[in-house]
Amino acid sequence: MEQHYPFSLPPLPYAYDALLPQIDEKTLHFHHDKHFAAYVDNLNKLLADQPEYQSWSLEQLCRDWCQLPDDIRQSVRNSAGGVYNHDLYFKTMAPAPASVPSGDLAGAVTRDFGDLQALKDALKTAALGVFGSGWAWLVSDREGRLSVQKTANQDTPLPLCPLLTCDVWEHAYYLQYQNRRAEYFENWWQLVDWPQLSETYRLRRSTLPRCPHD
Ligand code: MN3
After folding, report:
1. What pLDDT, in 10s, does the model give residues 3-39?
2. Contact between residue 123 and residue 138 where contact means Cβ atoms under 8 Å apart
3. CA of 171 to the centre of ligand 1 (A)
4. CA of 35 to the centre of ligand 1 (A)
5. Residues 191 and 22 sit within 8 Å (Cβ to Cβ)
6. Ligand 1 centre from 44 Cα, in Å?
7. Could you tell me the strand order of the sheet in which 146-152 lies?
8. How far, in Å, from the CA of 169 to the mean position of ligand 1?
9. How buried is residue 138: exposed, middle or buried, by Cβ count under 10 Å (0-12/13-18/19+)?
């Protein structure tokens, strides 16, 4: 994804039938090609006549939306968040078989949650606890400590570093699972691309400035 305006829709990183049976083709088609695409289009429209914000990165738009002018602040917050969140959501799934964290991330999961099952339980509680539309997250702080967060609407957990997110807007699962959000979560969990997340976590740790107490 480009770093700033104009943003474009990243292609789905796998075939539309690659996540079967956990997520079906129809859901992926509507979710990626319609919902995600609409957030990209709306964000570009909002910034089209705002040259002073066209150099802002997607992360900056999501993190510093409160600095934007009144007339576009909330719309940019929603649209930029929609782009950021969906980009991470689609990028961090991979066709089953299920994988597990490795390296530094495996150690951090053990340190901060006890084990992977405890992380899953915390994330599931967050996903089921989102009232209305929103997201459940696994995030890292600057020191690499992991936590689970939830956000409403298209808000992001930035400036915390998002590693993984589960979209619990109904459009993410309703076509296939109807109202069964818990069943959707269990199936989504099988698709988490832990090898990729482990590498993301390792790289981020190695590029962050060291803290005095490290
Ligand atoms: Mn969605």
Report:
1. 899 999 999 999 999 999 999 999 999 999 999 999 9
2. yes
3. 6
4. 6
5. yes
6. 18
7. 146-152, 134-140, 161-167
8. 6
9. buried
Tokens at residue 48, please? 């089209």
In the chain, % of residues over pLDDT 70: 95
CA pair distance 40, 7, nearest whole angstrom: 6
Say how many Å lie between the CA of residue 189 and the centre of ligand 1. Answer: 16
pLDDT of 211: 45
Residue 31 CA to ligand 1 center (angstroms) comes to: 6
Tell me whether the omega of the peptide bond preceding residue 51 falls within 30 degrees of 0, making it cis.
Answer: no
Q: How far is the CA of 188 from the centre of ligand 1 (A)?
A: 13
Distance 158 CA to ligand 1 centre (A): 18
To 5 degrees, how large is the angle CA 198–CA 200–CA 4? 155
Neighbours of ion ligand 1 (CB under 5 A): 167, 169, 172
Q: At a CB cut-off of 8 Å and minimum separation 6, what does 23 contact? A: 93, 176, 187, 188, 191
